[in-house]
Design a protein that fits this description.
Elements: E1 3-12, E2 15-25, E3 30-34, H1 41-49, E4 56-61, E5 64-65, E6 76-79, H2 91-101, H3 106-119, H4 135-147, E7 153-157, H5 165-182, E8 185-190, H6 193-199, E9 202-207, E10 210-215, H7 217-222, H8 227-232, E11 236-242, E12 247-250, E13 253-256, E14 265-271, E15 275-279, E16 285-293, E17 296-303, E18 307-314, E19 328-333, E20 337-340
Parallel strand pairs: 3-8, 3-9, 6-7, 7-8
Antiparallel strand pairs: 1-2, 1-4, 4-5, 9-10, 11-14, 12-13, 14-20, 15-19, 16-17, 16-19, 17-18
Length: about 350
């Protein structure tokens, strides 16, 4: 099933939670709504599900508006952050709950629950209650319950936020594999860019109630459309300066700015992997710190009178040869992105 959101807006009193947002999710896609907390992502998800009413705009399923439909009639599966399982019910009863509420016979609902528990890797745990499961297992039960009525659309609101990091990584792989097997159109909310990029076919970056950019993970990372996206996604250096002959100067380093007019205030964003450092005793910067990050090394360098920049390298990069805190280095910018800088006052 395809989803089309057109000019969606939602206010809570004087607070504008969603501001004229439009996007489309194609049939069978797994799409992430990515952005900081409080940016409007969950509100958009709840409007699509029918749990909130929009103030303006239209939500369409397969081209048909659904604003008049109750949440139950939209046939949407919803997975919440905190599982929302019934503590007094067994795992099987939790999974079958939606089917029983629809009047499905107990035997048929039980068979469907057993089928889904096998699918989500919990075969044999149907007689347990939620308190006897780990956090990751509970979230799998919540997902099985959402899938039990065979929804047309699956919505997940920060599904792994309450789970520890190692289990979270395992569940990401598992959810992507499950989605590829079932091909149900899915939208999930997250503030974790690593999670969005690992799972999603496309990412919609939401900030302050607005859609900043929609694209594949690579497009979002490599071609950020706005200053917010450039700064929010990935680890970046930010330089404020004045454009002159296609670049801005930072501590002796000329950073490309593109086609800005000379004298224009600009904000330049440089990703940590778009900088090259190497030891050079006549270089323009000094290494102030080197930090091991597993398979990578983060190097911070101080530019006289201008501040610091940092870069990251593979642990065995030849560029790290002879580099140590206090040494001088040469610097090269392989790619930068410039945006207009609004000067207040």
């Amino acid at each position: 099933m395809s989803i089309r959101v057109e000019h969606l807006s939602k206010n809570f009193g004087s607070f504008e939670a969603v501001k004229d947002v439009s996007f489309e999710v194609r049939t069978g896609e797994l799409v992430a709504l990515l952005g900081p907390s409080g940016g409007g992502k969950s509100t958009i998800l709840r409007i699509i599900a029918g749990l909130e009413n929009e103030d303006a705009g239209t939500v369409r399923f397969d081209g048909e508006p659904v604003g008049h439909l109750h949440a139950r009639a939209r046939k949407v599966g919803f997975v919440f952050q905190h599982y929302a399982l019934f503590r007094h019910m067994t795992v099987t009863e939790n999974v079958a709950f939606g089917l029983r509420a629809q009047g499905v016979a107990r035997s048929e609902a039980g068979a469907r629950a057993a089928e889904l528990l096998r699918l989500v890797g919990l075969d044999g745990l149907g007689k347990r209650v939620p308190s006897q499961l780990s956090g990751g297992q509970r979230q799998r039960v919540a997902l099985a319950r959402a899938l039990a009525p065979r929804p047309r659309l699956l919505l997940l609101d920060e599904p792994f936020a309450a789970i520890d990091a190692k289990v979270r990584q395992e569940l990401r792989v598992w959810l992507r594999r499950l989605h590829d097997e079932m091909h149900v159109t899915s939208i999930f909310v997250t503030h974790d860019q690593e999670e969005a990029f690992a799972l999603a076919d496309r990412v919609l970056v939401i900030n302050n109630g607005k859609l900043e950019q929609a694209g594949t993970p690579l497009e979002i990372m490599d071609e950020p459309a706005t200053e917010f996206v450039a700064g929010f996604v990935g680890e970046v250096n930010v330089i404020d300066g004045i454009a002159s002959e296609g670049s801005a100067v930072f501590g002796g380093l000329r950073v490309p700015t593109g086609s800005f007019a000379d004298g224009a205030p600009v904000r330049v964003v440089i990703r940590s992997y778009d900088l090259k450092f190497w030891r050079d005793d006549s270089g323009i910067a000094t290494v102030s710190r080197m930090q091991s990050l597993g398979d990578r090394v983060k190097v911070e360098a101080r530019f006289n009178g201008s501040g610091s920049l940092f870069a990251q390298f593979p642990r065995r990069s030849s560029l790290l040869a002879g580099m140590e805190p206090g040494c001088r280095i040469a610097v090269e910018v392989t790619k930068s992105r410039a945006y207009p800088l609004v000067v207040s006052g």
